[in-house]
Amino acid sequence: MKIGKILLALTAVSLLAVPAIAADTLKVGVQAPITGSYANEGQGIDNGVRLLAEQINAKGGVLGKQIEVVTCDDQGTAMAAAICAKDLVNKGVSMVIGSYTSTCAEAAQPTYYKAGVLQTSDGTADSLTEKGYWTFFRNSFPNSAEAAFVANYLVKEKGYQRIVVISDFSTYADGLANATEEAIKELGGNVVSRDKIKADSQNFTPVLTNIKSKNPDAIFFAGYYSDGGLLRAQQKALGIKADFYGGDANDNPDFVKLAGSAAEGAFIVNVPSPDVLPYDIAKSFIADYQKKYGEMPPSIWGLMNIDGMRAIIHGIEQTKSFDTKGVAEYLHGMEPLPGITGPIAFSKDGNREGGAYVVKKIQADGSYANEFVQ
Amino acid sequence: MDIFLQQLANGLTIGSMFALVALGYTMVYGVMKLINFAHGDMVAASAFVGLTIYTQVMGQATSLVAVIAIFLLTALSMAVVGILLERIAYRPLREAPRLSAVVSALGASLVIQNGIMLIWGPRMRIFPELVPQVYWDFGGVVISLIQVIILALSLILMVALYLFVEKTRMGAAIRASSIDQDAARLMGINVNNVIALIFIIGSSLGAVGGLFIGLYYRGITFNMGWQYGLYAFIAAILGGIGNIPGAMLGGMLLGLFNAFIAGYVSSTWADAFTFILLILILIVRPTGILGERVAEKV
């Protein structure tokens, strides 16, 4: 009983003591889907941020302050994302890395904007940078760039005559699919069907059966890998002979595992994969990542977010201040910073500049081979 | 026409999975008048148990014997979990108001769901390709081997269950208990044993359903039980909850309904129409298609 009371008292003292220590740290928030369908990617982001924080802290921190990482699980849903945003702001973070999906990044955006907290996300939906929020920095390349590339590749390079475009209902997927459909039509291509599936519903055969009757020669799926792998498997099971192209969010090892033997011959469109990144900084970071976690980063997306975080910290160091407004002004139009995923620079609206795409073909053993490099 | 037949085949496949899961709901309701909300999560758990048996016990063997062993071992493990569930969550509340048992069922559902997350992690796990990808093309209608297996095995299990309940002494005990537990006890039937038996049967059938989900859709997540549980629950109500052939019919009809709505109307609206169907049944025929209209005892 007595010991219990002492413990209680000690706990109370230590609780009171925490804020005093915390004041000397730079709080970095991670908003990512740690659980749910995209948990693989969310944990990749969290792991990467923690590794980078560790490395920076070992070198003396940022302007003498140690980084403290605070993670909030947004489960890949807009509702949880909005709660996460409030929670992270209340905890006093000065920047937030994430989230993985555009939907979650978008739901959290206004809260960070109002609180003056810098946010960097790999969300590719164009709408993310169309709101005029000075706090938001996209560390990936927008949907419109990918849509233009895909349309040009399908129509001009490959000459497909009957193209089907599929998405789910998320901000990212629907935006990418609409932009792609428009771009294909502008190039004079023929979209025979534009379909939507419900993410996570697993049974896509009813939609695919209808698609089969349209006799397509190419299918472009703009959704996520957790649905894409199944869609590919069910496409093969129904005997639809069209070539399958998955958008950037299909670039995850789970796509191949889900599709099983049907994965062979499917194409994935994305920026280059982590393992083929030519930059020294990429090689050393990925080596450290593998050493710490015993696996490769799940995809390029976690690394894009790490680049976003590196850019913001670079901004803090250059402006010698933790004032987010000043850092944001610096980042808009800064000289390109060498990054893990290539040079990082932002336009005035917070879009990442540059970006080149590759088309990768999945081989019989599940590995990728470059089919086309932009 | 071939589109129609293809949707028919798709609908029957998912329908038979719904039916297997719905049987678990309906049998428990029949005897205990309790909606076992934890059943959907038991189904999800069985997919994970099956995956673990495949990797740890079977050493990733993919032979026919190994697949049969996975089915048997998973059904056995889930039967044990089912008995435990009944002992821990429901038996202490047997005499309590019905609402307490429902709350306990919801609690058990959360415990199992989060238990799966703690043991196997929140990430989607991928089921191995245990059934070879073999397809047959009948003039535009493509049927896969896994679809045939799901349909055939489901029908065999359902017929076996029907015969067991209708033709054996234990089956008669189940039927008697579902009509009146007190009277059944007076006739010398051990109702506790009957309840344990229905949890064994329901959980084993659910386990087969869970393995089918894993084999057919490959990706399994800790929270998928809710979705399949809900569909199976609707299937059980559609057929007439408490009625065993009703659950089979309800599952098949719901699978077909879902496939045709998604195919001919819009996949976006398939779920909405499913719930509209549920509301319509509850208004027009609350006892379901095969359920009997029983006057309320006063």
Structure, described:
The complex is a heterodimer of chains A (374) and B (298). Chain A is of the alpha/beta class and 374 residues long. Chain A folds into 2 domains: 2-141 and 278-331, Rossmann fold; 143-270, Response regulator (Rossmann fold), CATH 3.40.50.2300. Chain A is built from 12 helices and 12 strands. The longest helix of chain A has 21 residues, at 2-22. Chain A is globular, with a radius of gyration of 22 Å. With 298 residues, chain B is mostly helical. Chain B has one domain (13-225). Chain B contains 11 helices and 4 strands. Chain B has helices at 2-32, 39-57, 64-90, 98-120, 145-167, 169-179, 181-186, 191-217, 224-239, 244-265, 270-284, and strands spanning 125-126, 135-138, 141-144, 219-220. In chain B, strands 1-4 form a two-stranded antiparallel sheet. The longest helix of chain B has 31 residues, at 2-32. The mean pLDDT of chain B is 90. The chains are: A alpha/beta (374), B mainly alpha (298). Chain A binds chain B through residues 34-37, 39-40, 43, 169, 195-198, 200-207, 209-210, 212-213, 226, 229-230, 233, 236-239, 254, 257-258, 260-262, and chain B through 3, 6-7, 10, 14, 117, 121-124, 126, 129, 133, 135, 137, 142, 144, 213, 217-219, 221, 223, 227, 258-260, 262-263, 267-268, 270-271.
